[in-house]
Write a structure and sequence with these properties.
By secondary structure, the chain is α+β, with helices and mostly antiparallel strands. The chain folds into two domains: about 60 residues, no CATH class; about 80 residues, no CATH class. Helices cover about 45% and strands about 25% of the residues. The strands form two sheets. Strands 1-4 form a two-stranded antiparallel ribbon. The protein has a two-stranded antiparallel sheet with strand order 2-3. The radius of gyration is 23 Å and the shape is elongated.
Length: about 150
């Protein structure tokens, strides 16, 4: 699907029609296969586009590239550091929201996170972020013809 010739405002409006929850719910209802779709819709309304901002580099700091650079520069401690990373990432992945919050309240963990923020994150360059887009859109389905593929 090539929408590059479509107006940028139109592409942005199309991207804002469904939220992640609606997309996930729709995906859960559709099985694997090649499904044909023929839909005509009318989208009307407004898009409130906020000014671009800057924010601290929190999530981006823990990228694969950052971990790779860190491990490459660790020298003789690399093997032990990788073992520790596997252990810590595995433990963190098993925590639900309540357990994660409880962990942060444990003695030393919250202080370590705060120290990481002030000693590392606050010293990093700020990330440029596009302003939020708040849609007020009405979607009308003009014509819809879809056929699910037969499961084999």
């Amino acid at each position: 699907m090539d929408l590059t010739t479509t107006d940028a405002l139109t592409r942005l409006a199309l991207g804002k029609i469904l939220n992640r929850k609606e997309l996930a719910a729709a995906r859960a209802e559709i099985g694997s296969g090649v499904h044909s779709v023929d839909v005509t819709i009318r989208v009307t309304g407004t898009l409130d586009v906020a000014e671009d901002t800057e924010k601290a580099a929190t999530v981006k700091v823990l990228s694969k590239a950052t971990v790779g650079l860190l491990l490459r520069r660790m020298g003789v401690t690399r093997a032990k550091a990788m073992e520790l990373l596997v252990e810590v990432f595995t433990e963190a992945m098993t925590l639900d929201k309540d357990a994660s919050e409880a962990l942060l309240e444990e003695v030393g963990v919250d202080d370590a996170v705060k120290m990481f923020r002030t000693d590392v994150v606050d010293r990093l360059p700020k990330l440029k972020c596009k302003g939020a887009v708040r849609p007020t859109l009405a979607v009308e389905v003009i014509a819809e013809k879809a056929q699910l593929a037969l499961a084999i």
